[in-house]
Task: inverse folding
């Protein structure tokens, strides 16, 4: 054995540090766990009621003002009811309104939702919905201006 080895002394100040650094965080952790278990509202998910369609209120459900379905913000056009019933039963109409796609992209999005988000088979409604969305929410032309095509170009001389 090494004769230089000394057994560490446990004095009162070391005991206080042990209590502070070990037991206090342990007590805080345990009390937080009990609070979370007893506080039932902590784990509940609050869904904003105004984002989902309330089909029970028939008066407001069918209301159209200035060509816009009031409850969802969708354009009043053929296929509106099928789109409202199938799209807003899972998510807000705002999610649809913020997107603009052509028929192929709307169809691909529906297929993606069916494969990954448990969207049901839309059957005959799929064509109606895709046509409604592509007609009323097509891609917007944004970005650069069109190329200039009516200009007589000339060669610069050096």
Result:
């Amino acid at each position: 054995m090494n004769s230089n080895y000394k057994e560490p002394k446990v004095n009162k100040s070391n005991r206080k540090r042990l209590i502070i650094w070990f037991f206090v965080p342990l007590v805080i952790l345990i009390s937080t766990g009990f609070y979370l278990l007893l506080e039932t509202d902590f784990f509940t998910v609050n869904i904003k009621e105004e984002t989902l369609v309330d089909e029970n209120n028939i008066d407001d459900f069918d209301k159209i003002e200035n060509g816009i379905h009031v409850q969802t913000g969708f354009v009043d056009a053929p296929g509106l009811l099928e789109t409202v019933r199938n799209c807003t039963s899972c998510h807000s109409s705002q999610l649809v309104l913020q997107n603009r796609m052509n028929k192929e992209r709307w169809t691909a999005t529906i297929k993606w939702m069916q494969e990954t988000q448990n969207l049901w088979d839309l059957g005959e409604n799929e064509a109606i919905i895709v046509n409604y969305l592509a007609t009323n929410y097509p891609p917007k032309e944004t970005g650069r201006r069109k190329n200039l095509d009516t200009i007589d170009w000339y060669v610069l001389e050096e």
User: Anything to note?
Assistant: The chain has two domains: 17-43, 49-136. Strands lie at 64-65, 68-69. The mean pLDDT is 81.
